[in-house]
Request: fold
Amino acid sequence: MKLNRWRSVWRDLLVRRQNVVGINRRNVELIYPFNERRHFAIADDKLVAKEVLTRLGVPVPRLLGVANGLHEVGGLLARIEGEEHFVVKPAQSSGGQGLLVVGEQVAPGVWIKAGGGRVTLAQIRQHVANIVFGAFSKDRPDRAYVEERIQAHPVYQRLWQDGLSDLRIITLRGTPLMAMLRVPTAASGGVANLHQGGIGLAIDIETGRTVRASFRGRPIERHPDNGERLIGVEQPEWDKVLDTARRASRVPLAYLGTDIVVDRDGRTLVLELNARPGLEIQNVNGQGLGTRLMEVLG
Amino acid sequence: MLSVLKLKGLWKRIPRLSAIAGALVLVAVCIVGLKVWVWGLSLADVLPRTQYSVRLSMRLDGNDDSVVVRSFLPMSDARQQIRDEQVADASLSHAVVTEGMNRKVIWTGRHVPDGVLLSTRVDVVVQPIRYEIDPGLHLPASYPLSIARYLKPAPYIQVDSPEIEEEVRRIGADHGTILERLGAIYARTSALTARPFKGTTDALTALRLGEASCNGKSRLFVALARQAGIPTRLVGGLVMNPGTTRTTHQWVESYVGGHWVPFDPTNGYFARLPEHYLELYTGDEVLFTHTRDINFEYQFWVSTELVPAQVASAVPGAFNLWGVFERSGLPFSLLRTLLTLPVGALVVVLCRNVVGVPTWGTFLPALLAAAMAETGLFWGLLSWITVIAVVGLLRSTLQDLNLLHAPLLAILLAFVAATLLGMAVVADFVGNAQLSRATIFPIAVTAISAERFYMSISDDGMPDALKRLAGTTAVILACYLVMNSLAVQMLLVAFPEVLLGVVALELYLGRWVGIRLSEYFRFRGLLVEETP
Reply:
C-alpha cells in the first residue's frame, strides 16, 4: 500500500520535473542560446537599459541626472536641489540595494525620506559618492543616477502603501511566458524582492488577474500585514503592460525578464531588465515554465 | 521534452561535443590498453604498498664546548626504497656524508643550549626479500680483495680464536657446501638463549655464555661464518613496528654467489628478510656517536600508511609519470596533488551543478582538500576554521571603519598570517607537535578563503555567508575523501590518462540540463502534489 503510494509519487515526479526549469536547464537551453553574453550589460546596468529602452520608445521613469565619477557629483546635486519626489539609484546594484527614496522638500536642502526621517543635501552627496565609489556594486566604480519617484497606481497603493509593487513579465522572443506581481511587506522593508520577504502573486496572462499568492514559500490569500485580499486582483492597464513588455523585449535579449510599474496616471514604466530570470516565478505560479516554452517554440 | 529547443539550439553543438568527449575517452582507453597489453602492466604493479614513516627524535643538552652527534641515514637499494627524507636541526648544523657503504648525518654546533631537539624522518617502502641458495654451491677458491676483508677478524669478532675454530668444527661448518655451512651456523646461533642484554656482546662472550641479544648472536654468526670461509658482515637497523621504540636491531649478511644474503638468527630469518626491516648501516658500527655529557636521549617513532605503488618500469619514458618525477627529484606528494586536483575539481562540479551545494569558487575546495592531504584532515580543518573564525570576528570591528577594499584585504591577510603564527606559538607552548602542523597549511588558499568569506558576508549577508561556509566545508570533505582515496590515487598514478575521461565527463556535465538535487527541494511544490 505505502510502497504503491510512493511509487505513484515518484512516477508523478518524473512527469512533473519535465516541466520545471532548473538553473542548469535555464542556462543551457534559454540563456546561452538566446542571450549573448555581450548584451548582458543592457540588463546589468540600469542606466544602459534606460538608454536602450528610450531609443526603442519604451516608457521609463524620467531621468533627472547622472553622476559618472566623483567630479560629476556636484553637478548632479545642483540638478536636484529644487526637485521633490525623486529616487537616487546606483546603476549596477542588485536586489534594490543603495536606493534612496526622497519625498517633499521641507526646507532648503532638507527632504522627507520615504519611510520617515529626513535627509539633507550633504547626506545625499555622501550617498551619491558612495554609489560612485562602488559601495553597492561589489567595489567596482559605478554610476549614480536620479529619477522621478513613481507614485503607484491606486490598485497597488491599496495593496501596500510605502514601497512600490512591480510586475515581472518573462518574455521569450517577445511572447510573454509568465507574469507575477511582487508586493512589499513590512518585513521586506519597502522592497518587493521575494527573498527579502516580498509577496509573489501569480498573474494569469490572459485576464491580468492574480490567481495565486505566496509569501515565504507558503500560499496565502490576504496580505500578512494589512489583510488586503490578494487573489482575483485585476491589474490596471494590463494590455498596455503586456505591450510594454513586448516592446522592451526588442532589446537583443530574446529571453528576458522585464520589471514594470503602473503609476497613478496609468503610465506603464520599465524599471529594469533581467537577463537571467525564470526560477522563483515558477514557484509563485505553481507551474513550471516547460509547457509554456513548448507552446511558444513549438 | 523541449525537443524543438534542443533541435534548434543544440543541434550543432551536441554532435561536436560528443565527438570530442568520445575522442578523449578513446585516447584514454588506447593508452590504458597499450600499458596493459603491450607493456604488460599488471594489477600487482599498481597495488598499494605499505609506506613506513620513521621519525627519529633526539634530545640533548649543550655544553660550553662544541657538540657533535653522528648517526646513520638509510640508503635506497633493491630491497628498501627511500621516498622522502628530512633532517631537522635546531641550533646545530648538519652534513650528510657517505662513509664506506653508509650514509652518515653529522650535527655540529657550538655553545648549544640545553634541551635541543634534533630529528630525522624517512619515508620508506620495503620489499620483502628471499634468496634461494644453490645447494650445490661450494666455497670459491678465492674472493675479490674487497670481499675478502669480510673474512678477517675484528675487535669484537674473534675469528682466529681457537674456541671459534673448535666450534666451527664441532657444528660441522668446516666442510660441505655453502648452504650446509650456513645452515649449521644459523642453527647454532639462533639456538642461543635470547637475553635482552644492553651494550655490546662480542662473539666469544656470546659463545661462552651460550646466551646473547641480537648483537651477540649476530657477531657470533659473523665470526663462525668468516672462520668457515664465508665473507659475512653485520647489519644494523630498525624493526619497524608502528609506535615508539628505542630498540634497534642487528642482523648479518653473507656473501653467497655474488650477493649479500641476509640472515637474522635472532628473529629466525634464513636467507630472507621481511618487509618491516629497515637497514641503516652495515659493519660493526654504533648507531649514535656523540660528545660526552650531553644527556643524549633518542626515540624512534614509526607509523605506516598505504601508498600507491610505483608503476612498473616496463612502461617507458613519458608514460611513466612516477619515473619522470623520480628522475627530476620531485616529491611524490606533488605528483599526488597534481593528479588528484582535476578529480577534486570534478567533485566540486558535481557538488555544485548536480547536488546544488553553494560554495566559494570552483577550485578553492579542491585546493583546500589538497592542502589538507599534506597537513592531515583534522589539523587542516582546524587551521582553516580558525582563520575563518578570526575573519568573522574581525569583520564586526572593521566594518564600521568604512575602509576601501584593497587596504581592508591587506589587513585581513596580516591577521591571517598572525593567526597561523599564533597557532605555531600555542603549539610550542603546549608542546603539541601535531598542532604546529596546522601552521604548514598554505597561506595562499587560507588567505583567499578568508577574502571570500569576508566578501560573502558583505554581499550575501551573514546567514548566506554561513550557508556557503558550511557548503564549502562539506565540499572540501567530499574532495578530501575522493582525492585521498587510495584507489583513486593508485588508478591515477598508474593511468593518468584517466583524467581525459574526467574532462569528457565534465564536457557532458557542461551541457547537463537536469534538475539539481537542491532544486527538488526548492521546487517541491511543483514536483510533488500536495496532500490535502
Observations:
- Chain A touches chain B through 30 residues (CB under 8 Å).
- The mean pLDDT of chain A is 91.
- The first helix of chain A runs from residue 2 to 16.
